[in-house]
């Protein structure tokens, strides 16, 4: 729950690869930030177990691996108000600890490890993480000051260039932007630029040589390719590191990252967050959660099925076509809550006091128990436990013409619950603005997915399901 789209732009600009490992020195710092919190938790576990003379083997090793998966990647800020950060750390750790204890209880492994050691670790780990972040504003700048201070320049006095200058000077203690270059008249420069003017593009190579510039960021529009090629030729005999910051960042990036097609580097502008190990981790967690939920809720689901059979005429299950991963058509299962089963070109959304809803159906919808059969969709692989909620095909056809980027939400499997639903964007969307708000929350989920975020959404779903006024 790390960042906003601007943070993604910054990551790419300074040489990182969002969604993957970073490159370059700034990228190395970003990579360390991914690992530092999970490794701190692991180090605390080792220290506590050593103190209690508890060997790290068998179930203890599984505990360490499971915890690493739950806490990776670390994305907490290293410069924040300490007490606000402590609250964030404690709330996230509470979710992690609850999942660990619930898993250990359901798998009957609590007795296999030293309970006192585990309890001590559960209290010590968040304090260790907080302590690390507490000293980082003092420690990190001192470490960086021991290294050579690097001088940078930016080519392009536009909005991207101005944002890049602000980001580097504010967030990079070891780097300073010395000058900005652009062939345009100074009056046409971005008004937020306060760095000295180094001249036009013809002056760059000479400036780099004379002023020991070690980093050069090219933030010219794609239409400036001839100028860029000529500039690169001028810089061929320098040792300056050169980064290209393309103007694709005017678009709404989703899981942007650098990738390779053979040996050709490509920039992913809109991609699914589930690639490689993330895909395997997401699928494994879906199967584990869905199978566990089905095992626990099977008696309840059987009771609901019998109640539906005797309370009103019609089938027990309602099946409706929806769009799934990559826009492919899937069939979603629900307990029937209405007297009709609509799946045509026009599907009116449910409203408060909707006459189509049966008395039992109203209770099922208010408690979200009508969604329970979708656990079968999760096991089949059509859906996920957490993701953007699937809409009826008729609604997709309408809203994809009204809301820019609407179909991007189908870069992932639809979910039984989602970030939008636990943030109040549930129920009837009688205005386009309400649907737009739901899509914005779905896009946030796509940009910031992690197992921790999924766990938070599931926990908030359970706490909100009985008091959501938008369920009807």
Explain this structure.
This protein has 472 residues and is an alpha/beta fold. It folds into three domains: 5-145, no CATH class; 150-268, Rossmann fold (3-Layer(aba) Sandwich); 277-464, no CATH class. Helix content is 48%, strand content 11%. It is built from 14 helices and eleven strands. It has helices at 5-13, 24-51, 59-71, 82-106, 115-145, 159-171, 204-210, 225-234, 277-311, 359-367, 374-380, 393-399, 432-448, 451-464, and strands spanning 150-155, 175-181, 197-199, 215-218, 241-244, 257-261, 264-268, 317-323, 329-335, 384-386, 415-417. Strand 10, helix 12 (393-399) and strand 11 form a beta-alpha-beta unit. Helix 9 packs antiparallel against helix 11. The radius of gyration is 26 Å and the shape is globular.
Instruction: Count the DSSP helices.
Output: 14
Output mean pLDDT: 78
Rg (CA only)? 26 Å
How would you classify the helix and strand content by structural class?
alpha/beta
Query: Which sheet architecture does the biggest sheet show?
Result: 5 strands, parallel
Model regions low in confidence, pLDDT < 50 over at least 5 residues:
1-25
Number of DSSP strands? Answer: 11
Q: Helix and strand succession?
A: HHHHHEHEEHEHEEEHEEHHEHEHH
From the structure provided, what is the oligomeric state, counting identical versus distinct chains? single chain
C-alpha termini separation:
30 Å
| Global shape | globular
The portion of residues forming beta strands comes to 5-15%
- What percent of the residues sit in helical stretches (DSSP H or I)? 40-55%
Biggest sheet strand order reads 3-2-1-4-5
Domains (count): 3
């Amino acid at each position: 729950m790390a960042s906003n789209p601007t943070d993604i732009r910054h990551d790419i600009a300074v040489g990182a690869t969002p969604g993957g490992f970073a490159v370059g020195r700034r990228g190395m710092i970003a990579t360390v930030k991914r690992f530092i919190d999970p490794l701190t938790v692991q180090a605390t576990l080792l220290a506590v177990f050593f103190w209690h003379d508890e060997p790290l083997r068998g179930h203890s090793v599984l505990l360490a691996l499971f915890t690493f998966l739950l806490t990776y990647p670390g994305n907490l800020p290293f410069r924040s108000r300490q007490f606000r950060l402590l609250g964030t750390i404690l709330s996230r750790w509470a979710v992690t600890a609850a999942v660990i204890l619930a898993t250990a209880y359901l798998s009957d492994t609590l007795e296999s490890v030293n309970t006192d050691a585990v309890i001590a670790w559960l209290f010590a780990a968040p304090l260790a993480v907080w302590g690390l972040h507490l000293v980082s504003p003092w420690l990190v700048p001192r470490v960086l000051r021991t290294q050579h201070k690097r001088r940078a320049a930016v080519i392009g006095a536009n909005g991207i260039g101005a944002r890049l200058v602000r980001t580097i000077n504010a967030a990079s203690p070891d780097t300073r932007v010395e000058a900005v270059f652009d062939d345009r008249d100074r009056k046409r420069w971005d008004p937020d630029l306060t760095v000295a003017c180094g001249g036009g593009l013809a002056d760059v190579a000479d400036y780099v040589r004379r002023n020991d510039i070690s980093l050069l960021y090219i933030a010219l529009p794609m239409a400036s390719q001839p100028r860029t090629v000529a500039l690169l030729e001028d810089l061929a005999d320098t040792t300056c590191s050169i980064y290209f910051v393309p103007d694709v960042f005017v678009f709404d990036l989703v899981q942007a990252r650098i990738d390779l097609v053979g040996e050709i580097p490509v920039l992913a502008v809109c991609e699914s967050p589930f690639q490689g190990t993330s895909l395997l981790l997401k699928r494994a967690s879906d199967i584990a959660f869905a199978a566990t939920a089905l095992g626990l809720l099977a008696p309840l689901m059987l009771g609901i099925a019998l109640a539906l059979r005797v309370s009103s005429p019609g089938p027990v299950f309602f099946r409706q076509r929806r769009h799934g991963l990559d826009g492919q058509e899937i069939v979603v299962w629900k307990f029937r809550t209405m007297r009709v089963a609509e799946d045509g070109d026009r599907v009116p959304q449910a409203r408060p006091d909707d006459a189509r809803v049966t008395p039992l159906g109203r209770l099922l919808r208010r408690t979200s128990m009508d969604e329970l059969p979708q656990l079968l969709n999760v096991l089949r692989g059509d859906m996920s436990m957490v993701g953007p909620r699937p809409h009826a095909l008729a609604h997709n056809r309408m809203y994809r013409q009204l809301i820019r980027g609407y179909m991007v939400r189908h870069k992932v499997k639809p979910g039984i619950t989602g970030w939008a639903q636990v943030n109040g964007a549930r129920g009837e969307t009688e205005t386009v603005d309400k649907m737009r708000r739901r899509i914005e929350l779905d896009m946030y989920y796509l940009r910031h997915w992690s197992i921790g975020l999924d766990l938070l959404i599931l926990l908030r779903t359970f706490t909100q399901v009985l008091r959501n006024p938008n369920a009807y």
